[in-house]
Amino acid sequence: MTQTTESRVTDAAYFVQGLLDGIPICLGYLAVSFAFGIQATSMGLSVFEATLISITNVTSAGQFAGLSVIASCGSYLEMAGVQFIINLRYMLMSAAISQKLSPKVSTGKRMLMACGMTDEIFGICISRPRELVPSYCYGATVISVAGWVLGTFLGAFSGELLPHSLSEALGVALYGMFIAIVVPVARENRAVLITAIIAMALSTLFSFAPLLSAISPGLRIILVTLITAGAAALLFPIEIKEA
Amino acid sequence: MSGNIYIYIAVMAIVTYLIRVLPLTLIRSEIKNPFIRSFLYYVPYATLTAMTVPAIFTAAKSLYSGLAAFIVALFLSFLRRSLLTVAAGACLTVFLAEALIRAM
Question: Taking CB atoms and an 8 Å limit, are B48 and A99 in contact across chains?
């Protein structure tokens, strides 16, 4: 077997492994993006527009926040600011993934990998033993994004047909997913627990206190994040470990 | 809606992609600044929590069903159930709680 054929075979094996590991993510995304599709069409977006958002963004929190900016007729600058802050975490994730790649991985491959950098795909990619092979990331991305886009389409398409009680219930799927990301970490890590408690308190204060409640939802999330993560970074600086 | 929906979508997509692609293609060495590293570490937890609370309480018609969904999701995720289980548990709770409230 020549060197090229052999590396192609391993690439295919990594791709399939990524596909398999991505199945639970795909199922989770189906449920959450279904809720996104329902919410998008209930706010007046077309099925095509809702699906286009999911294809081009692939980010739950950012897309839901984007909907609220569109609904409140926010400016394009507010939209950019909201997306920047809410998705800022991807910067850390991408930076972490860059440390796990061979320096030989081309810029083109890195640009492809960036398309699907979500919390969950990051999670399975960063926990790979040894070096990360781009094909593994592609496999996980393909199946997860397929679930994300299909779920959005189905939700947007059938949202109006579903009884209100059902679409209302599906509306909390996203919050359930967020809780499922934060709580297991907060359980082990006191600093994250305190961060979450501060964020809850501030977010509630900003939502209901006089004057503060006049701030738009997008800006509220930006401010709460900046204050909370800034305070947590000062109070509980994380230790720098050599990977 | 006052703005153009396609401009909104383009802004969302471009900003989000740039955030993802720039570190992957540009950063080839480790970030050393401890404050930036710590700040970025805490960002997801702060954002996700701020997006969930208090929004989850007003997601359903009744405050009580939102509250019940919150408690069930906390409980299931504390037991380290999967993303899908926690999301489904929260949905089911709202569905049942709203049905119960209507029946009363």
Answer: no
What does DSSP assign to residue A160? T
Tens digits of per-residue pLDDT, B16-71? 999 999 988 887 766 678 888 888 788 878 888 988 899 899 888 899 999 999 99
Task: From chain B, pick out residues whose CB is under 8 angstroms from the CB of A86.
Answer: 47, 51
Where do the domains of chain A lie? Answer: 3-171, 189-243
Residues whose CB falls within 8 Å of the CB of residue B4, separated by 6 or more in sequence, listed in order: none
**Interchain CB distance below 8 Å, A172 and B91:** yes
Tell me which residue of A119, A224, A230, A234 sits closest to A182, measured CA to CA: A119
ipTM above 0.85 for this complex: yes
Residue A5 has pLDDT above 70, yes or no: no
Q: What is the DSSP letter of A47?
A: H
B54 upstream amide cis, omega within 30 of 0: yes
Q: Could you tell me the two tokens for A185?
A: 């970490």
User: Which residues of chain B are within 8 Å of residue A114 when distances are taken between CB atoms?
Assistant: 17, 20-21, 24-25
Question: What is the rounded distance in angstroms from the CA atom of residue B51 to the CA atom of residue B4?
Answer: 25
Residue A106 CB contacts under 8 Å (≥ 6 apart), including other chains: none
The total number of structural domains in chain B stands at 1
Reported pTM:
0.73
Tokens 């960063």 belong to residue: A126
